[in-house]
Amino acid sequence: MSVFSGTVQRARALPKPAKIALWALFVLVLFLLPVLNIPVITTPDSDFGGVLFTVTTYVLVALGLNIVVGYAGLLDLGYVAFYAVGAYTVAVLGSAHAHLPWLLAVPVAVVAALVSGIVVGAPTLRVRGDYLAIVTLGFGEIVRITLINSSWLGGASGISQVPRPPSVTLFSVPHLDWSSGSPIVDLSNTTTFLKFGISDQIPYYWLALMVIFVVIYFDKRIKDSRVGRAWEATREDEDAAELMGVPTFKFKLLAFAMGAFIGGLSGALFAGKQGFISPDSFPLLLSILFVAAVVVGGAGNRGGVMLGAIVVAYFPERFREFQEWRVLVFGLALMALAIFRPQGLIPPRRTVRAKQADVKLEALEEGTASDG
């Protein structure tokens, strides 16, 4: 990690035009990733575009859950419920009981998820710690069981013919073919930009990627604002924050609502891509994986939680050929990370600063003791 830290510091020391050029190149590579078909990265046993879309939905969910867990310090084990609310709202309005286009159903879906976050958070955020985790876990299961037993919501069979995003046919991008050992542009295999169908999953990945960039922009703005500082004060010591005049309940409810909003948005993207949803799409395990993504990456670090989401969503698909062992290996890797890197792959700066301060204090105490 010292090598990574040094790389980050050197990147920060670059002049502004160089930083902009590097970021532009990075974004371009992200968009071209599914058509480059790089052999080491692509998933041979799964559709690479579909896997990348799954990764982006996990990244989007991790960004939303990071507001709740990383910024405000609230442990939410039922976050999949907001994901389901967003997906089912699109399905109900677009197929089951109305025929709204996807573009009109999405705003209603994210508002429904936000309202559900407020309704759940208002009575439950007065409890803390383990009790909050138990309550949110129960909420996630209540939503899933309701979906199974409600015929109005499709019951256990789910809802089909969910509308897809509107297609905007602008241009086509050819894929690279590596079958000969070197990259060759394959003009017979192309992907049309933002043409949403069934066979080609790459446009859904591009759409989700653009949504992520928008969410990151607003996430950064709010994290650096007065609201972000109030969340940090609440997370570190809620009682002290109250004594200093911070209305902690209001800010915790805001974090819960914003997290639910982003979770509902990710669910709406998922429903539009799948075309069919059922209660089986939103198991409790999904909530655990969402929390694992945030914890693995480093709760409170925006880049860290995105990396954690990539690790949780991508690697099990990349090594699908080891079907009998991949989940076991993945679980052992998470255990090793929890033991040897409990602060996450990329911990937030406050954690790094606190650790450096502890090291300096220990060195100072040892020096004082030796002088004595």
Describe this structure in words.
- The structure is a single chain.
- With 372 residues, the chain is mainly alpha-helical.
- It has 14 helices and 4 strands.
- Strands 1-4 form a two-stranded antiparallel sheet. It has a two-stranded antiparallel sheet with strand order 2-3.
- A hairpin with a 6-residue loop joins strand 2 and strand 3.
- Helix 3 packs antiparallel against helix 10.
- The longest helix has 27 residues.
- The radius of gyration is 22 Å and the shape is globular.
- The N terminus is likely disordered.
Keywords:
mainly alpha, two-stranded antiparallel sheet, two-stranded antiparallel ribbon, 14 helices, globular
Give a quick account of the main beta sheet: strands, pairing sense, barrel closure: 2 strands, antiparallel
Q: Order of strands side by side in the largest beta sheet?
A: 1-4
Task: Decide which structural class fits the backbone.
Answer: mainly alpha
Question: How many runs of DSSP E, i.e. beta strands?
Answer: 4
- The percentage helix is 55-70%
Question: What is the count of helical runs?
Answer: 14
Low-confidence stretches at least 5 residues in length (pLDDT < 50)? 1-5
Instruction: Encode the helix/strand succession as letters.
Output: HHHHHHEEEHHHHEHHHH
Summed over residues and divided by their number, the pLDDT gives a mean of 85
